[in-house]
Amino acid sequence: MLKTLWPRATVKERPEGAATRPYVRSYIFMRLAIGILGIALPLQLFAEPLFFDGQPFLRGSLSAYYYSGMREFFVGVLWAIGVFLVTYKVAEPSRESRASTYAGLAAILVALFPTERPGDGFALTPLQAQLGESTVEAIHFLSAGVFIALLALISFYFGRFGRTRRRLHYTCAGIIVAALALAAFAGITGEPDKGLLVAEVLAVLAFTTSWLAKVEFDVLFGET
């Protein structure tokens, strides 16, 4: 039994040509999984009332679901997306790679630093108690703004440097920029009602559309 757990004495040579297809498929599958997580993130709008409060669209933003029964889901999905974006093309010295890495770090900060509490009925987190709720909230909103802006930049790069679906990627980038403007306006003025929530959902779905458009489904599901 111990023998099966013992590492091999030698390492196999890196495969080339057709032998690399399983590795390529694994990479593409990870891209697909992140796209699915991007779709799943706004689904907490429906899952939270279904399993907990019973009132649809109760929160004013996606970040506010940190203070709901969907907290673990919200934080876990953000971490998964963030880690993948950080490692996505990490060895490639390109603008797209840098934008992706910074976007991933921003997503992780959004998960680590929650938005303000929806009321005094919620206890401060240890981080809020240590740094102050207003400081944590400021880091959260700054990170969220950077995250959304970089998502727009990544979609723009998809269109500029990609060979296909350029118009789709540019459109998604434009929607994300418009959503960022709406989020900023809603955050400053408080109008329109649920404006921040709508902006966040639009940004996430637009980027997910652009992201999934880059998935090579023919390679992923093609013959070996």
Question: Tags for this entry?
Answer:
single chain, 224 residues, 0% strand
Oligomer: single chain
pLDDT averaged residue by residue: 84
The coarse silhouette is globular
Order of helices and strands: HHHHHHHHHH
- According to DSSP, the number of beta strands is 0
Structural class: mainly alpha
CA(first)-CA(last) distance = 33 Å
Helix residue percentage: 55-70%
Radius of gyration: 20 Å
Instruction: Write down the domain tally.
Output: 1
Unreliable runs: none
Give a brief outline of the structure.
By secondary structure, the chain is mainly α. It has helices at 2-5, 21-40, 44-53, 71-87, 95-112, 126-131, 133-161, 166-189, 195-212, 217-220.
Description:
It is a single chain. The chain has ten helices and no strands. The longest helix is centred in the middle third of the chain and has 29 residues. The protein is mostly helical. It has one domain. Helix 5 runs antiparallel to helix 7.
Chart the SSEs and their pairings.
Layout: H1 2-5, H2 21-40, H3 44-53, H4 71-87, H5 95-112, H6 126-131, H7 133-161, H8 166-189, H9 195-212, H10 217-220
Helix pairs in contact: 2-4, 2-9, 4-5, 5-7, 7-8, 7-9, 8-9
